[in-house]
Amino acid sequence: MNDKLKFAILNGVAGAIAGGFLAIWSPTSGYWIFGIGAPIAAFSCAYFFWHQFTRKENRPSNSKLFIIGLLSGSVSHYLCWIILGVGMNICYSTTGNCTDSLGSPPIDLLSLPYVSLGFSFLSLLFLGWITVPVSIGLGFLVRKLSSAETS
């Protein structure tokens, strides 16, 4: 298994843990969807950024690992909100369910990119101090495991 996939899987697991934490400990219902969106977003961002920053080299430098983890851990919040918004709109248009806490329809798809930025800012304030360092640490862990396998 290559390092890109290892990093993406580990970030996906971290996203599943964060999403599960939100689903279990949230005071209201409806947060179960984070258990789906967070791992998908974390996996996708980790895979994409590792691929983008390591195209020409096998072993990324410390600064590249830091940037890869920083981007993966933070951009995944935005992607998660986009995934949740699209999923909620599909659910609402097919079943009539998936409304917000007041029973209103979900945010329309045209407003979703802008609203997701605001939600991302809030989620980074509350969970970013955990998700970003974890993603950075996972990058260093993958490189350490990779160098242990080759020696």
Topology:
Layout: H1 3-25, H2 34-53, H3 62-95, H4 112-150
| Structural class computed from helices and strand pairing | mainly alpha
Can you give the mean pLDDT?
91
Low-confidence stretches: none
Number of structural units classed as domains: 1
Largest sheet composition: none
| Content of β-strand | under 5%
What sort of overall outline do the alpha carbons produce when their principal axes are compared?
Answer: elongated
Helix percent reads over 70%
How many H/I helices?
4
**Spatial separation of the terminal alpha carbons:** 16 Å
Radius of gyration: 17 Å
Describe the structure.
The structure is a single chain. 77% of the residues lie in helices and 0% in strands. The chain is mainly alpha-helical and 151 residues long. The chain has one domain (3-150). The model has no long low-confidence stretch (mean pLDDT 91).
Features:
single chain, 77% helix, 151 residues
What's a concise summary of this model?
With 151 residues, the chain is mostly helical.
